[in-house]
């Protein structure tokens, strides 16, 4: 079986690995038909130490059920499914609270126990709680939009949901990557009155404007903070959705925040220590939340939205995909995203 492994910073290869097998009665094996590269995949692409064993890559996929374990009674071989980027039982108290990414019986793809989604097949633990069936007659042209429900669109949605975006709110989105643009789309769907997108890549910010951004701020750091504060009449933004994960983005977030406001982070933080004192959060009575998006909690409702057209046309979340490669050309997919030549790359195994 062919699968993508990362052997160190900048070193991504497609190699032959053993096929996944059923290890637990709650497992399923899925043949991947559509995958992609995530912005978070670029963090190890920049910094992973050399490793001769390699790390399986990829966590977003649509596929066809190939095998099921004895305890999986609600899925059958041949069914088309979409998977959240994290697997969970969907029945425990934590899942019932809506935080599937913290499920005590769950976990994340991209390891040797499950494999990665940038491959021909993947093992899915807790398959009944994780996989969501797609209609047998789904239009193939809608599949990229449905793939965004595995992670990217619903991660942007999670940022807006956790910040309680609603009518009358001014929202600032930091980051013009696929998650940032998805956060713009979600904030618009939730009725935000004003959406300020902080990004400097015109092709991306143009899509952000189509999806609801009322203002674009290309400046960064102190200059960018001053521009957002000026746009908001000196008051700052009710809500900041941070979709980058780097310290300068966090500093921008509390810099543009209105007193009493909310910062919601979904960019995977590349730091552990961050300011929370008087000059950052405390002095503004700010709320800080966000985290790994429990997309399984939102997936079925979003699936209905995409399929019945409420997110169709200009609001199709699949528009974040602006390039496509085969599995064998996965290294090119990483290069395109790392160089910012592409926003998000679709991969067909």
Could you list some keywords that capture this structure?
single chain, 349 residues, alpha/beta, 7-stranded mixed beta sheet, 6-stranded parallel beta sheet, 11 helices
Structure commentary:
The protein is of the alpha/beta class and about 350 residues long. Helices cover about 25% and strands about 25% of the residues. The chain has eleven helices and 18 strands. α7 links the parallel β12 and β13. About 50% of the residues are buried.
Q: Tell me, what's the shape?
A: globular
State Rg: 20 Å
What portion of residues belong to β-strands?
A: 15-25%
* Number of beta strands: 18
SSE run = EEEHEEEEHEEHEHHEHEHEHEHEEHEHE
Number of DSSP helices? Answer: 11
Mean pLDDT: 96
- Distance N terminus to C terminus? 11 Å
| Biggest beta sheet attributes | 7 strands, mixed
Summarize the amount of helix as a percent range. 25-40%
Q: Low-confidence stretches at least 5 residues in length (pLDDT < 50)?
A: none
Structural class: alpha/beta
């Amino acid at each position: 079986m062919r699968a993508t492994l990362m052997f160190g910073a900048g070193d991504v290869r497609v190699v032959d690995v053993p096929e996944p097998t059923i290890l637990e009665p709650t497992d399923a094996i899925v043949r991947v038909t559509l995958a992609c590269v995530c912005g978070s995949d670029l963090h190890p692409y920049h910094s992973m130490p050399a490793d001769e064993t390699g790390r399986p890559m990829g966590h977003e996929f649509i596929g066809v059920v190939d095998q099921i374990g004895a305890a999986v009674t609600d899925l059958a071989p041949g069914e088309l499914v979409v998977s959240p980027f994290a697997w969970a039982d969907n029945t425990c108290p934590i899942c019932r609270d809506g935080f599937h990414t913290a499920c005590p019986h769950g976990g994340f793809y991209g390891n040797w126990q499950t494999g990665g989604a940038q491959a021909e097949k993947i093992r899915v633990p807790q398959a009944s709680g994780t996989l969501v069936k797609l209609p047998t007659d789904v239009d193939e042209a809608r599949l990229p939009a449905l793939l965004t429900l595995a992670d990217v669109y619903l991660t942007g949605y999670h940022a807006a949901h956790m910040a309680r975006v609603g009518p009358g709110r001014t929202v600032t989105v930091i980051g013009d990557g696929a998650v940032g643009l998805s956060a713009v789309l979600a904030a618009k769907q939730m009725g935000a009155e004003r959406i300020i997108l902080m990004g400097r890549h015109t092709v991306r910010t143009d899509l952000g404007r189509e999806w609801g951004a009322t203002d674009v701020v290309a400046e960064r750091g102190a200059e960018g903070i001053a521009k957002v504060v000026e746009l908001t009449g000196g008051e700052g933004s009710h809500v900041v959705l941070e979709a980058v994960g780097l310290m300068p983005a966090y500093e921008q977030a509390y810099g543009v925040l209105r007193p009493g406001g909310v910062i919601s982070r979904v960019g995977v933080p590349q730091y552990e220590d961050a300011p929370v004192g008087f000059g950052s959060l405390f002095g503004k009575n700010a709320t800080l939340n966000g985290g790994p998006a429990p997309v399984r909690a939102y997936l079925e409702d979003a699936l209905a939205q995409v399929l019945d057209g409420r997110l169709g046309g200009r609001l199709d979340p699949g528009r974040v995909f602006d390039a496509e490669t085969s599995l064998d050309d996965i290294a090119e997919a990483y290069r395109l995203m790392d160089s910012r030549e592409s926003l998000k790359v679709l991969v067909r195994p």
